[in-house]
Amino acid sequence: MSRPTLYIAITNHGFGHAVRAASVAAKIQELNPEILLIITTTAPRWLLESYITGDFIYRTRAFDVGVVQADSLNMDLNLTLEKLREIKKKQNSLIASEVNFIKQNRVDLILADIPPLVAPIAKAAGIPCWMMSNFGWDFIYRDWGGEFAEIADWIGECFGKCDRLFRLPLHEPMSAFPNREDVGLTGGTPRYSEDKIRAILGIKTPPETTALMTFGGLGLAAIPYQNLQQFPDWQFITFDGDAPDLPNLIKVKELAAA
Predict the structure, then answer these.
(1) Which of 92, 123, 128, 186 could form a disulfide with 163 if both were Cys (CB 3.0 to 4.6 A apart)?
(2) CATH number, domain 5-182
């Protein structure tokens, strides 16, 4: 008898969706280790393994765009629209290819956060699709107006094929989904205590004067690091290994490699 198989698809934008979905996947694996997890995302494997300690199949695929960003603050709407049109144009071949994979691997259920095309994929494969989020991409794009309105309509049609939505707190209406179920906050459980992290990184400052600069990993090189010297009583932390050496700046990558 084959193992029950759960296919988890994660939106192609940043790490936030991946962290949330990976946390749910880890809990599912903990509750039932017999479930085979297939994680489909462009997020790096190391990020998923930070939350999922057991085995899983890692499948690199992108079914949406999210928002194309040059850095953490600036969006490229023209390139975002171009890539969305490309996915819409190729949707039939994308669906056919993934349906073939799903059937070959005997997937029982799809859980998505929250690439729209996954719902039509599930319908074509003849299996249920559940989704979780506090917003849909149609909500984001529709507000941009113009040619994004057509894309938002298409995405709404895709979401309409979802069998069940777990709607998270601080949500927009998400009216495109026919079956909505409100649930609580979703997130991971910290692997280390605050004291452990402070010891590993050598942090001496209190929490109120300790700042982690991540910006989703986007545009770290553009941070004006030299300005940090104007705040000598603060401890700053970055994942940018190319950042300058400053007395009040900890570079996590260097510490991890040491």
Answers:
(1) 128
(2) 3.40.50.2000
Q: How far is CA 187 from the centre of its chain?
A: 12
Say yes or no to pLDDT of 175 above 90.
Answer: yes
Phi, psi of 239, deg, nearest 5? -95, 5
**Residue-wise DSSP of 11-27:** -SSTTHHHHHHHHHHHH
Residues 201, 237 contacting (CB under 8 angstroms):
yes
- Boundaries of every domain in the chain: 5-182, 194-257
Q: What is the mean pLDDT of residues 38-64?
A: 95
Q: Does the pLDDT at position 115 exceed 80?
A: yes
Q: Tokens representing 77? A: 């709407």
Mean pLDDT score of the chain, rounded to an integer?
Answer: 93
